[in-house]
Amino acid sequence: MTRPYSEDLRERALARFDAGETIRSIGEALRISPSCVSKWRRLKRETGSLSPGQIGGHKPRVLSGELAEWLRQRCRSGPFTTRGLTAELAARGVKTDRRAVWVFVRAEGLSFKKKHSAG
Questions:
Q1: Does 82 reside within a domain?
Q2: What is the pLDDT of residue 48?
Q3: What is the 3-state secondary structure (H, E, C) of 50-88?
Q4: Are residues 103 and 70 part of one domain?
Q5: How many structural domains comprise the chain?
Q6: Cβ atoms within 10 Å of 40's Cβ, excluding its own
Q7: What is the mean pLDDT of the chain?
Q8: Which tens digits make up the pLDDT trace of 37-91?
Q9: pTM beyond 0.85, yes or no
Q10: How many CA atoms lie within 13 A of 102 on its CB side?
């Protein structure tokens, strides 16, 4: 993942703009996109700061709290499939996918082993 441009570069670009240079010439001189300069101007005007925003981060899990407890109880109560659990969650108004359910079940150590018939 790329890093944001430094605040020093951002300040230099805006100082050049304030001195009367065009956005395109600033972009060429500092080897950045002209759109960066215009976006930094807007950022400075709207927030008063040139600090870059957060890149990446952590998305909180949907299957947590009371929902996680319900899912644990459900898994312990009888046979299940990830597809079936996803459908049950959807019926409860929870939008999720099979992979999220699988990750939860795996992390909790919950599994349903099918019995093979002797035949």
A1: yes
A2: 93
A3: CCCCCCCCCCCCCCCCHHHHHHHHHHHHCCCCHHHHHHH
A4: yes
A5: 2
A6: 21
A7: 89
A8: 999 999 999 999 999 888 877 777 888 889 999 999 998 888 889 999 999 999 9
A9: no
A10: 5
Instruction: Give domain status of residue 1, yes or no.
Output: no
75 in Cβ contact with 112 (< 8 Å): yes
- Per-residue confidence (pLDDT) for residue 118, from 0 to 100: 61
Full residue range of the structural domain in which residue 14 is found: 7-47
100 contacts 62 by C-beta, under 8 angstroms? yes
Position 61 in a domain: no
What is the spatial distance between Cα 89 and Cα 70, in angstroms, rounded to a whole number?
10
Same domain, yes or no, for 71 and 38? no
Q: List b or e across 80-102, with b for residues whose CB sees 16 or more CB atoms inside 10 angstroms.
A: bebeebbeebeeeebebeeebbe
Q: Which residue has the tokens 């996680």?
A: 68
